């Protein structure tokens, strides 16, 4: 597949080996075109104007909702546009959990959460006197043995927040199994799944997972920044209170009070990122046109090649498209800097997962995360860069 | 950014720091740069006039932060601590003999920031 030609950034930097897709993916021409079209041809507000371009904006915005819904196997009325995964999870925390959890209740999270799926719960716990428990790591996987779950889950556990694909280790958690197991112990547990690192790499059917909420970002699936999604089960959304009150989320307002608009509109107070939502709809089309079979095949080929080539050059950990490299004698910052000199973009740091790094006994790591446009040539550049790091840093003793 | 960043002096100081170690019962301060995963503790021994007699550091981090602190500690012995605290970031860059990108400035200035806390 000639996928790179679909991304204009490679016209500017033909040799760029972009391997920081966990942070954000590059954007294909058609997504940019689609947004450009909105801003140039019909950049009116939605749900308001009785005139052509506003009606077109509304139509395109709502059609993006339909595409996103189909993409994850949900109903359009269950799709809420947010600013991203972080905003989606915060909406669950402030809009659902704050209202439905009480002092002494427990929230189960995992040891591999991104800060965005941990800090909102820590904050809520502090505010409401809740307890947070951690599903432990076993190597790069979660320990979901019956004993562990029995110890952690009880009738006080009201909420579980879990990442589907770890942004550090690439671990693909068996969320469906885990949800089944925890709900067997306590059927009342409401589960929010952080799908930020999953949606661009594997087909997702939220209904199939058994989750109550599912959160993801547009910018990690070839869409623009500033747009994300929260999917919620109908019953859960009915129990959720909006966090942004104001224009666009009401049906009627009088001096005495207001009546909220229907779901999902009541959760989208204020003018949303219209062009970005439309762009996200196009990103869904982009993924579907490539097709999961080809996407997954391409990504598997690339990471298999990486696993084969890395040999003893660096210690590598991780599953699938995300790997961390640990190089004795070279700090991640220096590794990333030297890789930059050979046109390879990787991430150095804690990748918004400090507790996980503590668990792994690392202060920081160098992360490689792949997307569909990556190929063997990118891996070759990475390997060349790693050899250079070794030459500069690793002592021969 | 080109390879010049990792000049001989930086690599040499990173691999074989001259001022690595602890000094007991003296002024000290520490700071972590969690974003990068750097941790640094600096020990400073002064005489009764506040002149630095000895300075050491413990910790780990990237080559730039470690080399910069090692060179800085060379530089400050014999100077008044109160004067050293007034040093500016640019002086660190001059010491390293290079201009740094904003991201790497943070690394290079870590040592000086710790000293300012002492
Ligand atoms: C697993 C995971 N969760 C949440 C986030 C936060 O996403 P965003 O910054 O788009 O809100 C990220 C992205 O860094 C992530 O990788």
Strand order of the largest sheet of chain B: 1-2-3
Q: What is the straight-line distance between the termini of chain A?
A: 44 Å
Give the class of chain A from helix and strand content and strand pairing. Answer: alpha/beta
What is the total domain count of chain B? 1
Strand order, main sheet of chain A: write it out: 2-10-9-8-7-3-4
Largest interface: A-B, 21 and 20 residues
What is the tally of beta strands of chain B? Answer: 3
Give the rounded overall mean pLDDT of chain A.
96
Strand content of chain A: 15-25%
- Look up the CATH topology of the largest domain in chain A: Aspartate Aminotransferase, domain 2
Low-confidence stretches of chain B at least 5 residues in length (pLDDT < 50)? none
Task: Specify the CATH architecture of chain B.
Answer: Alpha-Beta Complex
How would you describe this protein?
The complex is a heterodimer of chains A (397) and B (118). By secondary structure, chain A is an alpha/beta fold. Chain A has two domains: 122 residues, Alpha-Beta Complex (Aspartate Aminotransferase, domain 1), CATH 3.90.1150.10; 246 residues, 3-Layer(aba) Sandwich (Aspartate Aminotransferase, domain 2). Chain A is built from 14 helices and 17 strands. In chain A, α4 packs parallel to α5. Chain A is globular, with a radius of gyration of 22 Å. The longest helix of chain B is centred in the C-terminal third of the chain and has 16 residues. Chain B has 118 residues and is α+β, with helices and mostly antiparallel strands. The interface between A and B is medium-sized, with 21 and 20 residues. Bound molecules: pyridoxal-5'-phosphate. Pyridoxal-5'-phosphate binds next to α4 of chain A.
In short:
With 397 residues, chain A is an alpha/beta fold. Helices cover 41% and strands 17% of the residues of chain A. Chain A has helices spanning 9-12, 29-41, 52-71, 85-100, 119-128, 146-152, 175-185, 206-209, 234-238, 274-290, 292-310, 332-341, 354-360, 376-393, and strands spanning 17-18, 79-82, 106-110, 131-135, 137-138, 141-142, 157-163, 190-194, 213-217, 228-232, 250-253, 258-260, 315-317, 322-326, 344-345, 347-349, 365-369.
């Amino acid at each position: 597949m000639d996928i790179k030609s679909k991304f204009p950034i490679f016209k500017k930097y033909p040799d760029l080996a972009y391997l920081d897709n966990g942070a954000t993916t590059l954007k294909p021409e058609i997504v940019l075109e689609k947004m450009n079209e909105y801003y140039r041809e019909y950049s009116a507000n939605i749900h308001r104007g009785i005139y052509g371009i506003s009606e077109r904006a509304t139509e395109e915005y709502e059609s993006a909702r339909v595409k996103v819904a189909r993409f994850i196997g949900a109903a359009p009325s269950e799709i809420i546009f947010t600013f991203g995964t972080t905003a989606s999870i915060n909406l669950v925390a402030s809009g659902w959990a704050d209202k439905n959890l009480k002092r002494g209740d427990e929230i189960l999270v995992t040891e591999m959460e991104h800060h965005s799926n941990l800090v909102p719960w820590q904050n809520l716990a502090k505010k409401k006197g809740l307890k947070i428990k951690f599903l432990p790591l076993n190597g790069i996987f979660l320990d979901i043995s019956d004993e562990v779950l029995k110890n952690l889950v009880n009738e006080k556990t009201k909420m579980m927040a879990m990442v589907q694909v770890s942004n550090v280790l690439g671990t693909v958690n068996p969320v469906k199994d885990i949800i089944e197991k925890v709900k067997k112990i306590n059927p009342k547990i409401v589960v929010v799944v952080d799908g930020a690192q999953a949606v661009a790499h594997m087909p997702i059917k939220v209904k199939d997972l058994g989750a109550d909420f599912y959160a993801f970002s547009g910018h990690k699936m070839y869409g623009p920044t500033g747009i994300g999604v929260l999917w919620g089960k109908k019953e859960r959304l009915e129990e959720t209170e909006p966090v942004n009150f104001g224009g666009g989320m009401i049906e009627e307002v009088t001096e005495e009070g207001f009546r909220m608009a229907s779901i999902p509109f009541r959760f989208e107070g204020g003018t949303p990122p219209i062009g970005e939502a439309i762009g996200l709809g196009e990103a869904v089309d982009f993924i579907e046109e490539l097709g999961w079979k080809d996407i997954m095949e391409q990504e598997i080929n690339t990471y298999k090649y990486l696993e084969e080539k890395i040999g003893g050059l660096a210690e590598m950990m991780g599953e699938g498209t995300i790997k961390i490299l640990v190089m004795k004698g070279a700090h991640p910052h220096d590794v990333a800097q030297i890789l930059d000199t050979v046109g390879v973009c990787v991430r150095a740091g804690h990748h918004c997962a400090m507790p996980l790094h503590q668990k792994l006994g690392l202060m920081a790591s160098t992360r490689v995360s792949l997307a569909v446009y990556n190929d063997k040539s990118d891996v070759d550049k990475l390997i060349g860069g790693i050899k250079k790091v070794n030459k500069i840093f690793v002592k021969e003793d | 950014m080109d390879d010049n960043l990792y000049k001989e002096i930086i690599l040499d100081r990173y691999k074989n720091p001259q001022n690595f170690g602890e000094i007991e019962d003296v002024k000290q301060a520490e700071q972590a740069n969690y974003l990068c995963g750097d941790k640094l503790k600096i020990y400073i021994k002064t005489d009764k006039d506040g002149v630095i007699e000895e300075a050491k550091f413990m910790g780990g981090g990237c080559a730039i932060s470690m080399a910069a602190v090692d060179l800085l500690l060379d530089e400050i012995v014999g100077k008044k601590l109160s004067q050293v605290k007034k040093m500016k970031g640019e002086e660190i860059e001059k010491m390293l003999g290079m201009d740094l990108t904003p991201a790497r400035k943070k690394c290079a200035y870590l040592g000086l920031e710790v000293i300012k806390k002492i």
